[in-house]
Write a structure and sequence with these properties.
Strand content: 5-15%
GO molecular function, one term: ATP binding
Bound molecules: 5-S-methyl-5-thio-alpha-D-ribofuranose, magnesium ion
Number of helices: 17
Keywords: ATP-binding, Kinase, Nucleotide-binding, Transferase
Structural class: alpha+beta
Oligomer: single chain
Subunit structure: Homodimer.
Enzyme class: transferase
Largest sheet: 5 strands, antiparallel
EC number: 2.7.1.100
Length: 410
């Protein structure tokens, strides 16, 4: 472990036992929850990188999320706990641009790298729900609205020139961006120890990653990710970063994007593409399990999210800060750029989950023979997106073709 990591480690790592004392020490929290009334603390962290505790009390609940100075699932991999500060900053910015679509933030502790947020235990992680064949109607629409509001509200269109420059400068998140540059846009395309490939998929991976058209499209997508400072994007908007709660009599549906530690000023299409890529993974699972109806429904979410994004962004457009030369032609140009970025990002986000580090339950919980089929389908779909996607008119037609690719018909 390096000296830098050792230095960064010099803060208290929370445990179930120490959480009540922590709450008592934080003025913003002890006003929300009486430490003496805490009935239970649950360690629910099951992601790749952080500790997460649900704190229950007779007067209400909250969640604490603490960044470790290493990757939780690989403690030999050091990583800056400063990511917690980016999470707090982005949660505030996104909460203000898209109220009700991210968890409320109650407190941010820069010294111990902890954020306290709203408890959403009555929601569930969308990936798990999709994998069980459940339909949370409207969630894709909500996420399209979320991406649009954040995209507009944090962009030069929403903020104006001066505030946009200040926001870009305050949101440079190099270490987390480097993880994406490596894991999403590089390692699956080179020989790397992170890549784990079933022998039966070796040719599929070679065909995908060896295709010069794929390599050029991925290189261009990586360049866009590294250079297009359009808006304060979520940066990791896969279906495991979304909480959903279905509508019930007397209770509206709720959809929240969470885990915004990868937020930075990047291409808006990367967030849309993250959703699309994860719809491909969920559909590949459904198809492998013989549930074609669910696969078709999931792939239809791509168009639903896009239509909601487009409509919401266009509705916000009249409020842009500087309409002098940002006319309606620029709106169309911007949206078509987002579409192209989303297509490539969707492919990259799907392919990385079946080649490189950080796999997903959609695929990994399938028996090996079905996993081989699903992975083959995902790679065919990713190749289609990269090679023909931007030229295919709209996500409706495109994701019909993705469905064919998953079924081995393209
Ligand atoms: C070090 S693991 C990193 C991955 O986990 C996150 O969820 C992101 O997807 C990232 O690529
Ligand atoms: Mg995450």
């Amino acid at each position: 472990m390096t000296a830098a990591v050792e230095a960064e480690q010099a803060y208290e790592i929370l445990t179930v036992e120490t959480v009540p004392r922590y709450i008592a020490e934080r003025p913003a929290l002890r006003g929300l929850i009486d430490p003496a009334q805490i009935t239970r603390v649950r360690d629910v962290g099951d992601g790749n990188m952080n500790l997460v505790f649900v704190v229950e009390s007779s007067g209400g609940n909250l969640v604490l999320k603490q960044a470790l100075p290493w990757v939780r699932i690989d403690p030999t991999w050091p990583i800056t706990p400063e990511r917690n500060r980016f999470e707090a900053q982005a949660l505030r910015a996104h909460g203000s641009a898209a109220p009700g679509l991210v968890p409320a933030i109650y407190d941010a502790d820069d010294a111990r790298h902890v954020v306290a947020i709203e408890d959403l235990s009555d929601h569930r992680v969308w990936r798990g729900a999709l994998n069980e064949g459940l339909r949370h109607e409207g969630a894709a629409t909500d996420l399209g609205h979320y991406v649009a509001r954040v995209a507009f509200g944090t962009s030069v269109f929403g903020l104006g020139a001066e505030a946009h420059k200040a926001a870009v400068a305050a949101s440079v998140n190099p270490e987390l961006c480097e993880i994406t540059e490596d894991l999403v846009f590089t390692e699956p395309y080179i020989r790397h120890e992170h890549n784990k490939i079933l022998p039966a998929n070796a040719q599929d991976v070679a065909d995908y990653a060896g295709d010069p058209r794929v390599r050029t499209a991925i290189g261009m997508a990586k360049l866009a990710f590294m250079t297009h400072a359009e808006a304060l994007i979520h940066g990791d908007l896969h279906t495991g970063s979304v909480l959903v709660r279905a509508e019930e009599p007397g209770r509206a549906r709720s959809t929240r994007a969470f885990d915004v530690e990868f937020a930075f000023y990047g291409p808006v299409g990367f967030d849309i593409g993250a959703l699309w890529g994860n719809f491909v993974l969920a559909a590949a699972r459904a198809r492998a399990l013989g549930d074609d109806e669910h696969a078709t429904w999931v792939l239809g979410l791509a168009e639903e999210a896009w239509a909601a994004f487009r409509a919401e962004f266009a509705a916000l457009w009249p409020g842009r800060a500087d309409p002098r030369v940002y006319g309606d032609g620029v709106l169309e140009g911007f949206l078509s750029g987002v579409y192209g970025d989303a297509v490539a990002a969707g492919a990259a986000k799907a392919a990385r989950r079946v080649i490189g580090f950080s796999r997903v339950a959609d695929i990994e919980t399938l028996p090996e023979d079905l996993r081989v089929t699903a992975i083959r389908g995902v790679l065919r779909a990713a190749r289609l997106l990269l090679v023909e996607g931007a030229a295919t008119e709209g996500p409706g037609a495109l994701f019909d073709r993705v469905g064919d690719a998953l079924a081995g018909e393209s």
